[in-house]
Amino acid sequence: MPGKDDEPENRSNNGASNDAASKETSSPSKGNSSIFNFQPSQDVKVWAKRYRTEIAASSSSVLSTFVAFPLDFAKSRMQTFGGGFMHTVKDAYKAEGLRAFWRGVGPPMISVTTVRTISFSIYQKTKYFLDRSITKLTGQSPLMIANAPGSYPNLYTFACFGGAGAVSGAVITTLSCPFELTKLSEQLAGKMAREAKAVDSAGQRINPASIKTGSWNTARRLVRDRGLRGLYCGYHLHLLRDTIGTAIYFTTYESVKQLMANARGRNPTSPYAVVVAGGLCGILTVSSIYPVDVAKTVYQKALLSAGSSHVPRPAIRVFPAGAYRGLGVSVARSCILNMIFFSNFEMVKKRINALDT
């Protein structure tokens, strides 16, 4: 019986018959588009399987970010300027048009995709590292527990998923902070210009028409006024939000998926389990870290309009009125975004895993 090393020779010896067979099988479908007959090469399949997490995360991020961006726009406006959801939407549409809801979507389409891809890669590697470490210390493997039929989440799985999420969130903040800051500037620029509250370094009011928007112009202005550190305005609040939030995010997703699928003897990637887990992880994460997110947004908005002037860092208010302004929109956005993201993420990974290599 020939082994794997004999396969190239067999293919070359049978080349003529294979070509003839392929012509016969492809002839009935000449009318169809060639895209449906595309078959990736063996090297492409191997590459796809090796980087399946990155491929699934990047494609899912592009789709979910674009679909949910208008809700992110409304959330940022409500956090900084107040008002209800419908008032915010009507005000923006009337004054700035439909394009306002996707203003600044370009940088996030690139940055969020890059950040999420790296974040998932870090999470996966850290998760396996923690699994090995916990197994050595306790004799219990969190990943084996999570994937075993009839099992339920416990302290070992929480420590593994939460720890990996916290590491991922903390590391990725260094990359994501400048991009999120410029995105926020784009989302608030129209309202800030209309209210004409921007001032220069001398404290003089600036004509709104003279304010240059755009991610590149925002970055240049921040570097001019505050140096390279200006790109990291609000970094400490951003770090706190993403470290805690990402830990909750992955712990919730993995645990709910385990409860909805493995604990009931179902496939862990069943659509029902993935959609519910994705939606709940978004809701719980946003609700938990929302006061920190509000403080970060308000602080960064003040810095964006203060030039080189000093701006005191706001306190994180947990229960007072205003601390949860825009929470409903943010929860809806996060729920929809993560339902779309994880559904596509698991589907792409499943398709790649099914490739015959």
UniProtKB/TrEMBL annotation:
PROSITE patterns associated with the record: SOLCAR
Keyword hit for Ribosomal protein: no
Biased composition (Polar residues): 11-36
Pfam family, one: Mito_carr
Residue ranges of Solcar repeats: 48-129, 156-259, 269-351
Membrane topology: Multi-pass membrane protein
Region (Disordered): 1-36
InterPro entries cross-referenced by the UniProt entry: MCP_dom_sf, MCP_transmembrane, Mitochondrial_Carrier
Subcellular location: Mitochondrion membrane
Superkingdom classification of source: Eukaryota
Coiled coil region boundaries: none
Annotated keywords: Membrane, Mitochondrion, Mitochondrion inner membrane, Repeat, Transmembrane, Transmembrane helix, Transport
Sequence similarity: Belongs to the mitochondrial carrier (TC 2.A.29) family.
Name the record gives this protein: Mitochondrial thiamine pyrophosphate carrier 1
Organism of this sequence: Friedmanniomyces endolithicus
Lineage: Eukaryota, Fungi, Dikarya, Ascomycota, Pezizomycotina
